[in-house]
Every structure is written in C-alpha cells, then in structure tokens.
Amino acid sequence: MIWQLDLLILILVVLCGIGAIMIRDLLGTAILFGAYSFMMCLLWAIMGAVDVAFTEASVGAGVSTVFFVATVYHTTRRTKD
Amino acid sequence: MEEVLRLVVERYNYWIYITLMMIGLYALIAKNNLVKKIVGMNIFQTAVILFYVSIGVKKGATIPIIEHNYDMAHQAIRAADYVNPLPHVLMLTAIVVSVATLGVALAITIMVYHRYLTLEEDEILKQIRES
Question: pTM (2 decimals)?
Fold first, then answer.
C-alpha cells in the first residue's frame, strides 16, 4: 500500500462526497456519486481487496449510477438544497 | 502533546473515514431532497465498509491468492505475506445488500413523486397535512 496514493484518493473521495450532496442538480448528484463510487473502487484495489474492488466497479459505480439516472429521468432534476 | 499529534497523523485514514461517515449522516438528517438523503445513506454505508476493509490490510503483504508453482506447492504458507481476506468476503455481501436497498429506496421515491409531484420533504409533509 502506497500511502501518498492512498491519501490523495481519500481526499478525492471526500471531495466527491461533499460535491454530491451540495450540488443543486440531481443529475449532477448522480454523476458525482458515480465518480465517488469509482474512487472508492480504486481505494479498495490499493488496499489489496481486488474482489471487493471489481464488485464495487460493476455494482456500485455501474448499476447505482444507472438507478440514479433512471430515477432522475422518471421524476425531476430540480432541487432546493 | 507530541504523542497525540503522532496518533492523529499516523492514523489519518481513520479520521477520513469518520469524516465520510459524518458527511453521510449530515446528508441523511439535514438535506430536504429525498434523492440526496439516499445518496447520504449510501455514503454512510460505503464509509463503514471502507473501515472494515482497512482492518485487514498488512504492511508488505500481497493480495490473498496463494502462489502455486511446481515446487512451491509443498512449502508452508506464511499468513503474514497475505492480506486478511475475511473482512473482504463479509463486505462483499454488504455491497450487494446496499445496492438492493438503494433500488428499493429509489423505487419508493418514484412512487412518492408520482403521488405528490415533488421530491422535497417539507412540501410532501405540507400536502399530507392539508389533505
């Protein structure tokens, strides 16, 4: 485990998380949450948990993003906060 | 003082996990939009999973796949050379469960939108009180 890479990706994860709940657009939330899941997948590959990493890449970053985009398509993009 | 500072710097990953957990909890409690609440719930779940996976990491260890060569098969396996795979297997289940809960939550969100035509929690509560 390389700690510089670990720290860099952890900071990116926190930034993506804050952005996902702060942005005033639900499609932006969906995309930033996909980026968050992908950073999380990289973090698990660094930690040596390759099985968790590819499950997260397919299920977390793939299927979750599709679910969120489908929800935004069926409802609305507008949000107040 | 120096001891405390060293503890904070050496365990930086735990502080960041707690930060992520608090971001998720904040979104779950303080946000008004239903989709953002669900995003907060997912951030909270992944923070907990991240904490559990980080327990199994060892310094200088490789991924948990045993090296099999022709003449190495009868050698003893040293557990210190491999990352602990038990938290990985448990958290694999947790990821699949989290995606299932996400699907159910988003389906309920779509139903709520079709009934009240809004995703904001205060407007939904106002419509419920008026009816």
Answer: 0.90
- DSSP string computed for chain B: -HHHHHHHHHTHHHHHHHHHHHHHHHHHHH--BHHHHHHHHHHHHHHHHHHHHHHT--TT-B-S-----TTTTTSPPPGGGB---HHHHHHHHHHHHHHHHHHHHHHHHHHHHHHHS--BHHHHHHHHHH-
Closest alpha carbon within chain B to A15:
B20
- pLDDT value of position B86: 92
Residues of A in contact with B97 (CB under 8 A): none
Q: Nearest by CB to B39, which of A14, A29, A60?
A: A29
A25 lies in a domain? yes
Specify the number of domains making up chain A. 1
What does the pLDDT look like over A35-53, one tens digit per residue? 999 999 999 999 889 999 9
In-domain check, residue A79: no
The string of pLDDT tens digits covering residues B5-53 is 888 888 888 999 999 999 999 999 999 999 999 999 999 999 999 999 9
ipTM: 0.93
Is A62 within a domain?
yes
Q: Where are the domains of chain B?
A: 2-130
Contact at CB, A67 and B106, closer than 8 angstroms: yes
Task: Print the domain residue range for A34.
Answer: 3-74
Confirm or reject contact between A29 and chain B (CB < 8 A): yes
